[in-house]
Write a structure and sequence with these properties.
Oligomer: single chain
Low-confidence stretches: none
Structural class: mainly alpha
CATH superfamily: NCX, central ion-binding region
Radius of gyration: 19 Å
Number of helices: 14
Number of domains: 1
Helix content: over 70%
């Protein structure tokens, strides 16, 4: 009976995270527009924060509870999932074009963030407050540069992955309810998902790290999967690629810049293989993007197969 309850809570928690992120961005976009904040800044900040809110809340929740492997594994696993599963599937639907700014600026920043995270984790297992401060400083600089560029050259700004016009139809009182409801869903959804993840890790005698790298990572990446798959189906290729690159940057620099500040993360379960897979699949994506200014279907298949192979390796070593 306990297994069934925890399974239901885990699924419920995942659904709450997805809906909570959507509610939060709907309410936030409406309030931001009422305050006359430029739409390009809304897209670069509020929408980016909200679509990665599940990863943020889950990692902070796990860190505060002392589940460092889940907190760090969620970020590492989500970044691998975003490229291997989400971008791989999106490229199979339709080849993904890459805009100039993403190739020249965003992708190198993702490479830097990935290298920093890997170096910090190899130096000491986990994340200290000092290391988190470095990541957060890089994120602030990245955000400031993006906003400055968007204000000077709006045509270079990446398209927002959210329907702003729909959000603007929401009345003020509805926007406030969306924000409060979204926050509540995120907080309680994260609680349910982390508790269920810890329960099943103990039940099947696998590490918190494996659970964080797989079930939790995929669960918190569902908003990105839905957004990118729909964007690819509609032919909005910049949104699909930008969603993955932007989310991965946010996951490392913002989430691991914030969570360890609240409580340093001790994580001995994230192995060198996990870190090197994250580095390798990020580098492979960068090479694919630079080689032909697009990610072709065959390259998408390679990314997807790499992700499947990684999952097989994880499960084989966990049993």
């Amino acid at each position: 009976m306990q297994i069934f309850i925890q399974l239901v809570l885990g699924v419920l928690g995942t659904a709450m995270l997805c809906y909570g992120a959507d509610f939060l961005v709907r309410g936030g976009v409406r309030i931001a527009n009422l305050l006359k904040i430029p739409s390009v800044i809304i897209g670069l900040t509020l929408v980016a924060f909200a679509t990665s809110a599940p990863e943020l809340v889950v990692s902070v929740n796990a860190a505060l509870k002392g589940n460092g492997d889940i907190s760090l594994g969620n970020v590492v696993g989500s970044n691998i999932c975003n490229i291997g599963l989400i971008l791989g599937l999106s490229a199979l639907i339709t080849p993904m074009t890459v805009n100039r700014k993403m190739l020249a600026f965003d992708t190198p920043i993702l490479m830097l963030a990935t290298a920093l995270l890997t170096a910090f984790c190899l130096w000491t297992p986990g994340m200290s407050r000092v290391e988190a401060a470095v990541l957060l400083a890089v994120f602030v600089a990245f955000l400031w540069k993006n906003i400055s560029t968007a204000r000077k050259r709006p045509e270079d700004a990446e398209p927002a992955d959210f329907d702003v016009e729909s959000a603007n139809k929401v009345p003020l009182w509805g926007a406030v309810l969306y924000i409060l409801g979204g926050l509540a869903l995120l907080v309680f959804g994260a609680q349910f998902l982390v508790d269920a993840a810890v329960f099943f890790a103990k039940l099947f005698k696998v590490s918190d790290a494996v659970i964080g790298l797989t079930i939790v990572a995929v669960g918190t990446s569902l908003p990105e999967l839905a957004t990118s798959a729909v964007a690819a189906y509609k032919g909005e290729k910049d949104i699909a690629v930008g969603n993955v690159v932007g989310s991965n940057i946010f996951n490392i620099l913002a989430i691991l810049g914030i969570a360890p500040m609240l409580r340093p993360i001790a994580s001995s379960g994230i192995s060198r293989v996990d870190l090197f897979v994250m580095c390798g699949i990020t580098l492979a994506m960068g090479i694919m993007m630079a080689s032909g200014k697009e990610i072709r279907r065959a390259e998408g298949a390679v990314l997807l197969l790499a992700y499947i192979g990684y999952l097989v390796w994880l499960v084989a070593n966990a049993l």
